[in-house]
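Support request, please re-run this one:
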Amino acid sequence: MSVTVLLVDDEELVRAGLRAVLDTQPDIEVVGEAADGATVVPLVRRLRPDVVALDVRMPLLDGIEATRAILRSVADPPGILVITTFEEDAYVYEALRAGANGFLLKRARPAEIVHAVRLVAEGDSLLFPAAVRRLAAGHGNESARRVLERAALTGREREVLRLMAGGLSNAEIAGRLLLGGETVKSHVSSVLAKLGARDRTQAVITAYESGFVMLG
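Re-run finished. Output below.
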């Protein structure tokens, strides 16, 4: 089955470039385009894409608010991939905090674009590179610390969260901890539930903001 994608960017050239790259893949289909986040919710409801790739900065409704609107208004929402020019953009971090699953640089190579779309569609790994980890680590707050404390994660769940924060997929975590894939999946689900996190990205943000995971 194909991974279906909705492209949302106010620059037509960017949309055309992304479409040209993604349309070369037999397992990816671009099902629609939009020039602003203000139109994204009805398009998502109509087209039901697996992934929405949207610009973080748009004139009417930016990627942060568009992400919030999708998650607030759409049942079983798609994966959200934020497109940006600068990886250390505070807007990107706010979009991730709002619920986006990862981000993609506009200068990314074709293989990186395809990989990002597939990764967000699969949902068991994380687009959270070093630049964004630095942003997360710099946003330490007491609220995140309380969330982690109340979660009362087991020792194994804490190990799993640390590896998730390192960007490892379920299969990679299984290999590192010598566990079965289903066991890891169960631990990840438990971590998300205990943290009240919608997905891996939200759990990892909590891990960094609480100080549970440190850079270095």
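Residues 134 and 215 are 7 Å apart (CA to CA). The mean pLDDT is 90.
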